[in-house]
């Protein structure tokens, strides 16, 4: 069991020392670190950390903490993991921290009501799949996995009270979501104040040099910085990543808005969705999701500006992402499938199902086949010319479909091979 951290009398900091000159390798590492980020605080401090790391050969300790809420990851979730992988490729020690203790508190970030805490059983169940999903991005052989219960449980009541004494209520109320809830009269539970403290204490326990998080985590990351100073440690730098827009190019990627690309979706579906983003949004996806070098991306942009069809660049992006979450062969097959569909062909992986009740109205048939969520949506798709049977467009909303086997198509990506009986 880990012993609770005790304050050091000597601050392990290079503060006050003359700044070290930056080498070309450090400048390149800084450029990679800054790529696609929202903020890097404090950049001059991080540059010095990189320089000392280069001189000593000691990798920086880079932390990402995720609470094991129900895992259902999409590409938006991988933006921070991608940055971790880039830093991992630079030779630094990345720490994937599973917040099994903090999950029992519940992160109040961005919440206007108290977040119900998860049970211990829920946390354990969710944690089992977390690292497996993260390993689709990170190199598992070079990733340190930790659970914050290692040092949080040993604190006990005395340790928690001592930790709470290190931060004031006034500082907590600087947090935007707490302020809004207080002004609106919405209850704030005392235990919610413990969340940023415990997340900050994670940085103390791990002696983190850099902590990553989404833009909504900035307050929590800053608390970690302050606690490290209070415990006599060199303060971590913080890096916040922006939220990735979804397929519509407007709202953040979200399952509830149906504008997402799931990392466990079939390769062909993933490829098709990536090809549907706009040419402008493509560069945003490249910046936040691609592992290609900054020089490669600059060259690709120049080629497109010089006349290369943006579609070719988008194909390269789609193949890179599909290969990462499936395989290189799956990416090749997905491209072939996409080309086949664009020519009006039927993909190879069409789901097959049997239905009864012929003759069925077209709206009922599409809903029962799972191609439309409702009869009204089915009618709308017919009106828009988005429904085909065996490649022939359907224009009659009153069409009754008789018994037989045929391929239904809705839009560009939804297919089903249906055997309809009486």
From TrEMBL:
Chief site of localization: cytoplasm
Cell compartment(s), UniProt: Cytoplasm
Domain of life of the source: Bacteria
EC number: 6.1.1.1
GO cellular component: cytosol
Transmembrane parts of this sequence: none
One Gene Ontology term of the molecular function aspect: ATP binding
Motif ('HIGH' region): 68-77
Placement of sequence motif 'KMSKS' region: 252-256
Record-linked PROSITE patterns: AA_TRNA_LIGASE_I (PS00178), S4 (PS50889)
GO BP, sorted A to Z: tyrosyl-tRNA aminoacylation
Binding site for ATP: 255
Ranges of residues in domain RNA-binding S4: 360-421
Reactions catalysed, as given in the entry: tRNA(Tyr) + L-tyrosine + ATP = L-tyrosyl-tRNA(Tyr) + AMP + diphosphate + H(+)
Keywords, sorted A to Z: Aminoacyl-tRNA synthetase, ATP-binding, Cytoplasm, Ligase, Nucleotide-binding, Protein biosynthesis, RNA-binding
Keyword Lipoprotein: no
Similarity remark: Belongs to the class-I aminoacyl-tRNA synthetase family. TyrS type 2 subfamily.
Annotated protein name in UniProt: Tyrosine--tRNA ligase
Organism for this UniProt entry: Massilia glaciei
Name of the gene: tyrS
